[in-house]
Amino acid sequence: MTIVAADPRSIAQAAELLRDGRLVAFPTETVYGLGADATNDRAVAAIFAAKGRPSFNPLIIHLAAAEAAGELVAVDDRAAALARRFWPGPLTLVLPRRPEAAVSLLASAGLDSLAVRVPAHPVALALLAATGRPLAAPSANPSGRISPTTARHVAGDFDPPPAMILDGGPCAVGVESTVLDLTGRQAVLLRPGGIARETLEEELGPVDTAAATADPRAPGMLASHYAPARPVRLDAEQARPGEALLGFGGRAPADCLNLSAEGDLAEAAANLFAMLRRLDAPPQRAIAVMPIPRHGLGLAINDRLRRAAAPRPSSPLVRRDG
Ligand code: TXA
Ligand code: MG
């Protein structure tokens, strides 16, 4: 079995596999990542192959500590202040790539920027320290599908599985990191995530939002993503025949899965992907989701749900995010 409980011994083995150019799935506070040694071109290429991810969609580089970022990217005062406040944590900063950065060019997909973050999970941090290299790690799901928040989700999604899946329990945040582009003078929110926009704006002032676009500056903002196999209907008040209802708050019927009966957005984010996966099974033919407020973590939840509900690309030529 490739799922192994994370402990000092399995983390040391995982680090060995990573240094050998193999892929290891590991927990972060947001979702499970599919990690590779970011300095190894072949290992990074193997991530794109395993996920079926388009090569134009760049990867996040995970670091053991904020100090390591300066070797890879140009860290300005804004980035330094955000790193001090939010790292380790669910914030990814897109910054100008240093020409001498020892990271595979494939990882940044030919862009002159690089996305970096320090994850707030003891297993991820121990793995990064033991490997002694930056790790490129997208969410550990096939491109376009629902992100994994448990080790079992990862095991069910890949054939063949990664060399090892480190099990660190369910992810506490449950939605991916917030991706913020700081390559220009104006900060641009490329993906809402685990750090709320309002919280970032306390630090930075107003932040722009990237419109859903195929602009290579925002390759992750693609319409269909995080998609269950079944169709998804949003802002539903009740289920229609054949639909499973995903509830939110106290108005939801008692017999449906409820993201948070108390209406707590952090709890809803933590439950989102696991509940979508549970409902994406027979006998259901579709999934209907109750309305969710759009503030705080609700922005990220609604973003993921909107992409889950978007028309699916029927042709391999249509772009998909990873
Ligand atoms: O929470 C997370 O961020 C998780 C965990 C594993 O860290 N990772 C994750 O990675 O969600 P992934 O590959 O599924 O999403 C990375 C996002 C994509 O939307 C990608 O387009 C964007 O970050 N991205 C990466 N590098 C970029 C760059 N240089 N410029 C703009 N966007 C970038
Ligand atoms: Mg992803």
Describe the structure.
- The structure is a single chain.
- The protein has 2 domains: 3-209, DHBP synthase, CATH 3.90.870.10; 232-308, Rossmann fold, CATH 3.40.50.11030.
- 26% of the residues lie in helices and 17% in strands.
- It has an 11-stranded mixed beta sheet, sandwiched between helices. Strands 12-15-13-14 form a 4-stranded parallel beta sheet.
- It is built from 8 helices and 15 strands.
- With 322 residues, it is α/β, with parallel strands linked by helices.
- Bound molecules: threonylcarbamoyladenylate and magnesium ion.
- Magnesium ion binds next to loops.
Q: What features would you highlight for this structure?
A:
eleven-stranded mixed β-sheet; binds magnesium ion; DHBP synthase; 15 strands; alpha/beta; 322 residues; Rossmann fold; disordered C terminus; binds threonylcarbamoyladenylate
Main sheet record:
11 strands, mixed
Query: Low-confidence segments, ≥5 residues, pLDDT <50?
Result: 315-320
Class based on secondary structure composition and strand pairing: alpha/beta
The gyration radius over C-alpha positions equals 19 Å
Which topology of the largest domain does CATH recognise? DHBP synthase
End-to-end Cα distance, whole Å, is 25 Å
Q: Ligands in the structure? A: threonylcarbamoyladenylate, magnesium ion
What count of helical segments does DSSP give? 8
- Main CATH class of the largest domain: Alpha Beta
Q: Considering the protein shown, what is the CATH homologous superfamily of the largest domain? A: DHBP synthase
Share of residues in helices: 25-40%
Oligomeric category: single chain
Q: Estimate the mean pLDDT confidence.
A: 93
Assign an overall shape. Answer: globular
Please list the strands of the largest sheet in the order they lie side by side. Answer: 1-8-2-3-7-4-6-5-9-10-11
CATH architecture of the largest domain: Alpha-Beta Complex
Number of strands: 15
Strand content: 15-25%
